[in-house]
Amino acid sequence: MQICRSVEACRSAVRALKSEKGRVAFVPTMGALHEGHMALVEKAREVGDSVVASLFINPTQFGQASDFETYPRDEERDLAMFEAAGVDAVLIPDVSEIYPEGNETIVETTRLANMLHGIVRPGHFRGVTTVVARLFNIVQPDIAVFGEKDYQQLQVIRRMVRDLHFPVEIFGVPTRRAPDGLALSSRNARLSNESRKAATVLSRALDAATERAKSGQSIAQIRSAIETVIAGEPLAELRGLDIVEAQTLEPLGAQFDRPTAIMLSVEIDGVLLIDQKELYP
Ligand code: AMP
């Protein structure tokens, strides 16, 4: 596995991979890897001929400098996981490599970035598109793979790629879960034993919503099923519940009559967890 710390080293590794193997699939991450990230690598191996991953904690997508500074870092462990998963090359740039002195260019999806989660986290999605555009221009992959867990992020990236004509095919990967349903996340490590048990409330709420949707109930009834399950868990506080049209994230009418996305955020004992579900009538 090649380790590239500069733009130049990465470009030359990718050139070699393209000519030796064919299509390059790219998996951007911020490290603190878990099996959810490995699901992306598996997909990348399936759809590409070689896999390039990145480990870069992007400062421009954090609202508070303290969150950026305390983000978990364990380069050695992350590299070992990528290597074991069959990644061909990893880009691990310094911040100054991605954001050179005097840089001033941003990329923003002006509507999608500033609704729903983007209202709670101003500037977050602008930071994501700004870094992903830079990473795409450095790596120049044929394919890039993102998790459906960060549902709005996936839609923002699809829109950016379409609008800016990036020659990159985007794949979304279903959320990888623990056996009890909890979506894997680096934040789960912050949960105490008791709150870890309570954290299954997110997937339980989404399962209840799915049941209601299957029996032809309205959007309001689907919403109330979720609220009821969350209210039944004393450690959980509902922080965000958006039920919108899949992909466009536009508002829905009263009936469940088209592809629908549920975006859920719940705080459990000070830890904010997110989960998501797409429903099809
Ligand atoms: P992060 O390192 O948190 O920026 O995440 C890197 C990528 O991994 C993003 O595309 C996430 O959506 C994806 N991801 C995170 N958790 C999961 C999961 N449990 N299942 C699938 N993909 C995930």
Account of the protein in words:
The protein has 281 residues and is of the alpha/beta class. The longest helix is centred in the middle third of the chain and has 16 residues. The mean pLDDT is 97. The chain has eleven helices and nine strands. The protein folds into two domains: 172 residues, Rossmann fold (3-Layer(aba) Sandwich), CATH 3.40.50; 91 residues, Pantoate--beta-alanine Ligase, Chain: A,domain 2. The strands form two sheets. It has a six-stranded parallel β-sheet, sandwiched between helices. A three-stranded antiparallel β-sheet has the order 7-8-9, with helices on one face. The site of adenosine monophosphate has 16 residues, from helix 2 and strand 5.
List the keywords.
281 residues; alpha/beta; Rossmann fold; Pantoate--beta-alanine Ligase, Chain: A,domain 2; 2 domains; six-stranded parallel β-sheet; three-stranded antiparallel β-sheet; 9 strands; globular; binds adenosine monophosphate
